[in-house]
Amino acid sequence: MSRVFLGLSMGCPLAFAVLVLFVSFFSLAEPVDPKNISQWQLQQSQSAIKLSSWPVSRIQQLEQLSGQLTKKIEQLPRHCPIISDNSLGYHSAINLHQSLADTQFHQIEFTFERPFIIQSMALVPAFNPLKPYGGSYAFPDNFKIEIEKPMTGQFEEIINWMEQDFPDPGAYPVFFNNIDRKSTRLKITVPNTSRTNTTSRTNTHFALGEIFIWAYDNETGIFENIAHSNQTQVFVSSSYQQADKWDVSYLTDLDTGLGFPIKEQVIGSQDLRIIPKQQLLDEEVEIQLDLGRVQHISRIDFWPAKARSDILLPDFGFPDDIQVEISDKLDFKDANTMKPTSRGDKFGTLFSVRHHPIPTRYIRIKMTELQQINQYRILGLGEIAIYDATGKLINTEIKASAKGFPTAYQAQLSLLFDGISWGREIVAERDWIMGLAQRRPLDYQLNEVKNELALAHDYWEWLLAKIIAACILLVVLLLVAGVLLAQRAHRQQLLVKQGNRINRDLHDEVGSNLGSMTLLVDELAASYTDSAISDELNDLSLMAREANASLREVIWHSDGKAISLPVLLNSLFERAERVLRGVILNKSLPQNCPNIKVSLAVKRHLTLFFKEVIHNCARHAKASQLDMSASIKNQQLWIQVKDNGCGFDLTQVNKGWGLNNLTERAIEIGAQVQIDTQPKSGVCITLAIALELLAKEPKHSYQTSNE
């Protein structure tokens, strides 16, 4: 009955991302069944619950929805059908003969003794004993309900499901409310052929378990089920009769098979159970009630008591015979006897007595043929439910007294009028049937929500397993990557150690040899008187010293690291000390020199720039003094090298001096260079570079021939 769209497919977990759970047309905004297709379409399109695609949020939403539905269901009647093999209801004729097949419609017609205002009605399906909870058997797919207009003899259509199949109600009643039409006749029409196969005229039959018609009587003010009235006549166009199973009279015998009219929620309170140990029950027990004032009583139901948990008897202690008298006088003169309409002879029915509503204040109940246990009579009653002419339960202002059972149980008589039996609240007949109709979509929806919740849990477990597997895989990959990086770092450390060892060996072996060569050449130059040979030896000594200084610089550059500005300046000035011989060196380093990291490229360019300057001084200047100074001015580094040598004419520069290299290197690192010289006046070379450029890498890699 519930129209619920489930968009989840466990075969394709990604389908989980988009799903909308549509609420059935039996939403709480309209608590009963729609009377026609247009109402159904309106109700069906009213609301939709959007669920999150993230499984954790989705599970929370479904659990919240499940809790909300459960709370709503607890406030409605209990649904526990008790299906019997007998008194199944009314069954239309089975069209085995052509004469019956020619009939286009089956009809059930009710004729009332006088005009009533029909307020609501219910159709209870006939149940199939072979299905769990009965299920509906042959409930009509298409039908319409009409009432006769007063004084006209014409019928007015109030419910029409002829153009579209009515959803299968299952083991629940169908309830139509707010009819509000005055009439003496009501007619139910069911087509004899299938609506979807009219061409071949497939003959159909249908069945109903019970019909309720609740109406007001303007003359008496009574609200009752007039379908059950003795004055109501029932006519059917055709019927299938089978002893103890199918009969027209079963349409209004009040044997619905829907169980007891109590709410789902358990609220406590005990039933009256008398199991004497010392004082015995009499053969006849009498209970007399005083309603406090005269009221119109139409019905009295006697509920069996709920047995103890260790006794599996649903009618434990229930008397076999009950007699009920009602009167408006205490002496019960001219009392009316209410005859049983249902004797409670099978589980799922109550012992009920009914009477046309008459003024009543006093009720006398006699119970005989009591059950016995170990030769002791016992009595068990859950409730004596008394209903007035409007169908309302009377359970206040009742005073009760009893004869025939121990006085110790007199105080428990109030348990019979508390409106509770089996720990649940008793519901009036109309509210019971309407509540079950209200419950039908909620039960279906709760079942769908539970199924969807199970799928959501399965999907979340599947997704969580995938996430855990992915995490494990990621951890494994990270471990592998870590091992590889560790191995690479280890290899890198080995390479660095190997490089350092090679550098040490070069420094120790080659550097030592170059130093020895320098000393030897200097001694030879000093021993020769021939100036030409002496000059050659001095050049060789200079080359050895430069080679030794260059070796140190190569080792220094090979670490591939940046260096601070103070260390770089000291290294530059130390080169002059290693290369120059017989020259007075004056050094001037800046105080509070900023500890700026000099990039590898700038470090290399400055080193080679200074190498070129010192080389020219040693080769060509013939200077006896060299002044080297470094200073910080206006966020710039200034380096100046000045000798007192022979100088030269800038217009006649020898390419072998490498002055162009100096200029190009300065441009490469963003510095400015100035060369001041004149013949016989020495050379002064000044380099200026912004401090912020020292840490940056040049955009282009400039190379010179002497690199």
UniProtKB/TrEMBL annotation:
Residues 500-557 form the Signal transduction histidine kinase subgroup 3 dimerisation and phosphoacceptor domain. The keyword Transmembrane applies. The chain crosses the membrane at residues 459-485. Residues 603-691 form the Histidine kinase/HSP90-like ATPase domain. Keywords: Kinase, Membrane, Transferase, Transmembrane, Transmembrane helix, Two-component regulatory system. GO terms for molecular function: kinase activity. PANTHER family: NITRATE/NITRITE SENSOR PROTEIN NARX-RELATED. This is Histidine kinase. It comes from Catenovulum sediminis. The lineage of its organism: Bacteria, Pseudomonadati, Pseudomonadota, Gammaproteobacteria, Alteromonadales.
